[in-house]
Amino acid sequence: MAGKIRLILLVALFVATTSSAQQPSKQHDIDTSFADLDYDELFNELDLLLDSLTAPRSFALFNIAAGNNYFNYQTKGSYLLEASKKLTFSPTLSYFFKNGLGISANTIVVNDGQKLNPYQFSVTGSYDYIRNAKFITGVSLTHFFTKDSLPFYTSPLKNDLYTYFTYRGFWLKPSVAASYGWGSRNAYEERREYITSLRLNSRGYTRINTRESVNDFNLIASIRHDFYWLNILSKRDYARLTPQIVFTSGTQKFGFNQTSSTYTTVPRTGANILYNTEKIALDDQLVFQPLSLSTYLKAEYSRGKFFFQPQLIFDYYFPATEKNLTTAFVINAGVIF
């Protein structure tokens, strides 16, 4: 097993294997013994290697994603909100420890037509259990810092607890995840006009929530498969294509602070894009309901420590009464240190 993992490292050149002195080893060309390997087993181990980032080792990751997303602006001539598609950028800096702990800092920047506006920041602490060849699981907690007096709607939820489980023993890899977001009454009061507008747009009426806290809950189920191609342009690269289907259900009283899901090498991938719809419909009732069905077509090209990941998303948003189906295109690129 150790020999094959070493060989996979030489093939993928994803990251440099650390020695006992924590120094990266040199990378070499593939020798002729590669032809005698069991290819199915090789790709399974390569899949494990890429998803878990060659654990256990510590590393830093920087990536930036760019894509179009819908924002709901309050208009002067109407109490309802008007959706507008804007270009967003989302740089993220992360550090992951070899024991599974991780910390990330992220900001979302929108091009509002006049300037680049970094309107939201977040900090995430996480733990991923990646020592089992059959499954991977983890949990993360994110706190959001959102600018005040924004011209478009953002969720009043300030914290997001996310947990997931992915089984990797099948050709198709199923995943389940749960996301719970909560905030405060103060944050709710600041966004009451936007929430009222969104509910009027879909229901024709509203009931004001007067509780001291706000919350939303999502359950996410997905299935995917990874296809690999090695040595595309050189002996230092690989390509991966991942079709994925994601079904999301839950409450939709306030909505989560999500824009688009980036496809980084971090194990937690495939979160839904609740706000990639032109017709958001919030509900002030605690009703668990289908929210979205999304199809992802993710691609990745990696050479050495650099990666480039375009993805195309088709999202069907169930609560909307019209324009349920939207598309999104996101490009993500980064480097592993």
Task: List strands and helices in order, with pairings.
Layout: H1 2-12, H2 39-52, E1 59-74, E2 81-96, E3 101-111, E4 116-129, E5 135-146, E6 157-167, E7 173-184, H3 185-190, H4 192-203, E8 213-224, E9 227-230, E10 237-250, E11 289-303, E12 306-317, E13 325-336
Helix pairs in contact: 1-2
Describe this structure in words.
- It is a single chain.
- With 337 residues, the protein is mainly beta.
- The protein has one domain (58-336): monomeric porin ompg (Porin, Beta Barrel), CATH 2.40.160.40.
- The chain has 4 helices and 13 strands.
- Strands 1-2-3-4-5-6-7-8-10-11-12-13 form a 12-stranded antiparallel barrel.
- Strand 11 and strand 12 (306-317) form a beta hairpin.
- It is globular.
- The two termini are 25 Å apart.
Count of discrete domains: 1
Annotated CATH homologous superfamily: monomeric porin ompg
- Measured as a percent range, the helix fraction is 10-25%
Q: C-alpha Rg, in Å?
A: 21 Å
Strand-residue fraction?
A: over 45%
Quickly count the helices.
4
Structural class: mainly beta
Number of strands: 13
Characterize the overall form. globular
Q: What is the averaged pLDDT score?
A: 76
Q: State the major sheet.
A: 12 strands, antiparallel, barrel
Low-confidence stretches: 1-38, 266-273
Name the CATH class. Answer: Mainly Beta
Question: What strand order characterises the main sheet?
Answer: 1-2-3-4-5-6-7-8-10-11-12-13
| CATH topology (fold) name | Porin
Write the H/E string, N to C.
HHEEEEEEEHHEEEEEE
**CA distance, first residue to last residue:** 25 Å
CATH-level-2 architecture = Beta Barrel
